[in-house]
Amino acid sequence: MKHKKVYLRAYFGDNLGDDIFVEMVAKRYPDADFLCLRSEKQLRRFPENVKGVCGLRERLIYRRLRLKGDREASEELDIVLEDKAVKKADLAVYVVGSGFMEDDRTIAMDKRDRIFFRSRPYVLGASFGPYENDSFLVKYKKYFDRCKDVCFRDSFSAKIFSGKARRESDIVFAYDGAEDITMPEGFERYQVIAPASSIAEREKYVSFLKECISYAAREGIKTILAVFCKNQGDGKIADELACDNCLIFEYPDKKASFMAGLIKDAERVIAVRHHSAVLAMRYSVPVAVLAYSEKTTHMIEDIGGCAKSLGIDDIAGMTAEEFIKGYSFRLDEEKAAELKESALRQFEALDKELGRV
After folding, report:
1. pTM for the full predicted model
2. For residues 262 and 180, is the Cβ–Cβ distance under 8 A?
3. CA 341 to CA 320: how far, in whole Å?
4. 91-119 burial code (b ≥16 CB/10 A, e <16)
5. Could you give the CA distance from residue 301 to residue 324 in angstroms, rounded to a whole number?
6. Which of 162, 232, 257, 346 pairs with 193 at a CA distance of 20 to 30 A?
């Protein structure tokens, strides 16, 4: 049987959450070939049916443009290569988390979207915003009108596009890839902290996480610093937090399954990175969520019940003990299963297209 060709647009920046999206989509549809705007070398960690459309010639051009610092020309090349790949494919899919933020747009990105959404793609896993200008909203209402299906991961986004989109839980709530991890001696009891970078009042934020590490040590609990995205500076935060009671594990040096396994076997998780919170809830591990973005607070609001979070701006005057004792929660297995089923419904429309019903 001939494999369907699917152009898959995603964020390929060595970010754990986004890479899990790609892995889950590819494994769900093993009889489809997913064409991506990357080289084969850059996609080696993914399943074999994830294919790169950039050959040696394109890689050399990108390298030359990167050395020149010519971002505009690089983005224009993205547009040309993506349009060519979309035309070769039978359908297009855009699986993205924080993919529609107004302050993240460049002129070339807007042009690329105008062309891409003509392909009537399936959009999965997204949250919308933040945005300020109505023109930004109007533009995406037009784009989403063209889509075969749009499924957001939070009610806030879905309500903005009522009648044009639906909502289910984050795709990673259905991730089943966690490994069983054997920890070194002395780390039988550990908590995971998944820090994020680009946090305002960095000194106060780092100091608070150091206090969380010290509090755990007094309980006889070590700390694993799980770096979800080195490209965005998470590793630098981990280096600032490092101490004798800590070990650092970084993605993609460690596989996604290993990083998820760290969380699955943890005594608790202090989640700054969005998908560290999702994975903790997925595996019913106690988690204290330190939210730096609306995407996380909106998710917590949707889950309701025992789920709660502390805004990163609200740590002033709070001790680590107050945070961990006052904000830790654990989803029971029934609720975790409910969120998993919801996550799998993200794929309902695409299942029909690709023959998985």
Report:
1. 0.95
2. no
3. 34
4. bbbbbbbbbbebeeeeebeeebbeebbeb
5. 19
6. 346
Bigger pLDDT: 47 vs 356: 47
The 3-state secondary structure of the chain reads CCCEEEEEECCCCCCHHHHHHHHHHHHHCCCEEEEEEEECHHHCCCCCCEEEEECHHHHHHHHHHHHHCCHHHHHHHHHHHHHHHHHHCCEEEEECCCCECHHHCCHHHHHHHHHHHHHCCEEEEECECCCCCHHHHHHHHHHHHHCCEEEECCHHHHHHCECCEEECCCHHHHCCCCCCCCCCCCCCCEEEEECCCCCCCHHHHHHHHHHHHHHHHHCCCEEEEEECCHHHCHHHHHHHHCCCCEEEEECCCCCHHHHHHHHHCCCEEEECCHHHHHHHHHCCCCEEEEECCHHHHHHHHHHCCCCCEEEHHHCCCCCHHHHHHHHCECCCHHHHHHHHHHHHHCCHHHHHHHCCC
Q: What digits encode the pLDDT tens for the residues 19-68?
A: 999 999 999 999 999 999 999 999 999 999 999 999 999 999 989 998 99
pLDDT digits (tens, 9 = 90+) for 83-93: 999 999 999 99
Question: In this structure, is the dihedral angle defined by the CA atoms of residues 129, 135, 139 and 144, taken in order, positive or negative?
Answer: positive
Show Cβ contacts of residue 285 under 8 Å, excluding neighbours closer than 6 positions: 263, 264, 266, 268, 269, 279, 330
**Which amino acid is it at 169?**
S
Contact by Cβ (8 Å): 235, 271: no
Nearest to 34 by CA among 44, 22, 45: 22
Question: Which residue has better confidence, 2 or 32?
Answer: 32
Q: What tokens were used for 134?
A: 């109505």
Torsion of CA 167, 269, 291, 344, to 10 degrees: -10
